[in-house]
Amino acid sequence: MTEYDAVLFDSDGVLVEPPTYEPMADATRRTFRSMGVGDVAQPHIDAVVDDESLDADSLAELCAGYDIDPTEFWETRERYDEQSQIEAFRAGTRTRYDDVSSLADVRLPCGVVSNNHHAIIEFKLDFFEMAPLFETHFGRPRTVESLRLMKPNPHYIERAMADLDASSALYVGDKESDVLAAHRAGLDSALIRRDSLPAVECSVTPTHEIETLESISELVT
C-alpha cells in the first residue's frame, strides 16, 4: 500500500454532479448576444462549451471571426456561466453526491483542484457544507490565461500540494485530464467511474479505478 501525505479531489463528477450541456450553451449564447452577435455557428458554441479543449489561440481566432475582443468575451462568458451554475445548485437540478460524506473517514489532509471557476468551488463548499472536509481548494480565475493552466496542466495540483506541505498524494478525478494531470505532477491517480456518467477512456492508465468515494479511505490507510 502506497503511503500518501494528502488526497486531492476534482469537483464536478466527483463531489457534485457535473454541469449539463444546455446551461453552458445558453451562457455562451447570452455572451455573444451581449456583444452584439446574434447568429453564431453551432460548432463555435460547442467549442466554447467544451472549454477543456479550448486554448487562448483558438479563442482569439474564434472571436476574430465575429470581430469581438477575446478577453471581454471570455470574462463575460465566465460570469454568465457562474450564474447558471449557482442557479442550478440553488434549484436542486445539480447536487452533491451522497458518498461525499464518507470523506469524513479520510485521516489525511484533503484538497479540491478543479477546472471549474474558483468562485464556484467556494460556493459549492459552502452551499453543500463540504468546507470542513478540505484544507485547500483551487479553481480557475475568469481569465483567458486560465485556459493554459487547466488540467491536464498540473499547475493547480502543485499549488495545492504546496498548501498542504505534501510530497505525495492521491488525486481523484473522473476524466482523462485528471489522470494525466496527476501523472504529470508525479502523483498516483484514482479514476472514479460513476454509473450515472459516460464511460471514460484514458490514454494513461490510472493507478486505481473506483466506483464510489467510499473506497478512498481504504486506498490511503
UniProtKB/TrEMBL annotation:
Pfam families associated with the record: HAD_2
Keyword annotations: Hydrolase
InterPro entries according to UniProt: HAD-like_hydrolase_sf (IPR050155), HAD-like_sf (IPR036412), HAD-SF_hydro_IA (IPR006439), HAD_2 (IPR041492), HAD_sf (IPR023214), PGP-like_dom2 (IPR023198)
GO MF annotation, one: hydrolase activity
Keyword Hydrolase tagged: yes
EC number from the UniProt entry: 3.1.3.-
Entry superkingdom: Archaea
Family to which the UniProt record says this protein belongs: Belongs to the HAD-like hydrolase superfamily.
Record's protein name: HAD family hydrolase
